[in-house]
Amino acid sequence: xxxxxxxxxxxxxxxxxxxxxxxxxxxxxxxxxxxxxxxxxxxxxxxxxxxxxxxxxxxxxxxxxxxxxxxxxxxxxxxxxxxxxxxxxxxxxxxxxxxxxxxxxxxxxxxxxxxxxxxxxxxxxxxxxxxxxxxxxxxxxxxxxxxxxxxxxxxxxxxxxxxxxxxxxxxxxxxxxxxxxxxxxxxxxxxxxxxxxxxxxxxxxxxxxxxxxxxxxxxxxxxxxxxxxxxxxxxxxxxxxxxxxxxxxxxxxxxxxxxxxxxx
Length: 264
Fold this sequence. Notes:
Involved in beta-(1-->2)glucan export. Transmembrane domains (TMD) form a pore in the inner membrane and the ATP-binding domain (NBD) is responsible for energy generation. Strand 4 and strand 5 form a beta hairpin. The chain has helices spanning 8-19, 60-67, 89-92, 111-121, 127-137, 153-165, 183-200, 211-217, 235-241, 247-255, and strands at 20-31, 34-45, 49-53, 75-80, 83-85, 96-99, 171-175, 203-207, 220-225, 228-233. It has ten helices and ten strands. It has a domain at 21-95 and 191-257: P-loop containing nucleotide triphosphate hydrolases (Rossmann fold).
């Protein structure tokens, strides 16, 4: 059978898209005259952890909201687990989840009630069993029947993680998952996320200001500034390019407009 060489690049691109947990191409978002996201493109390979870095106003949260289908792009294309967003949102939302310490659960409901509500939204089978499993894994059992508004910051974070894992997602979108936590609790959360990724083959997009966390967890790092991508590579390659020993030093260079050593 003859092979149409003209279709080979397109076929290769389709295979790459199918292999990616997230594919973002030429994505933009404009609010009136403010360009929050400006023509960005990147991919998150399946089974990987990709860090999304940038200062306040860099466009990270808007990007995540568009990936989840909560905000409509002004231009560009998004595919999540092989599905176009937001038009195929219904086909993919049950396979992903989101966690942020800045999004509170209803404070008057108990932990068990909150997890039950979210579990029903995801149509989780054997929901009572899944809640019991998460309670054991995340050390929630002693306060399952306590009102969510009466939990400590660390307890709330563990409950938020339980909510994010309730449907055994293939893709996790995390926005500052360890913000405001003490080092021990933050380390515990990171370890659990790493364990979940390895056990389930899950993919993670992690937005964080904690550079040590990013160095520890991420295979790749996408650095944003003013809605654009400044760099996209492995943490070690980016640090080498800027001739810096830590990602925090790189972050400061980008934020303050210092050129990479290789370009200066």
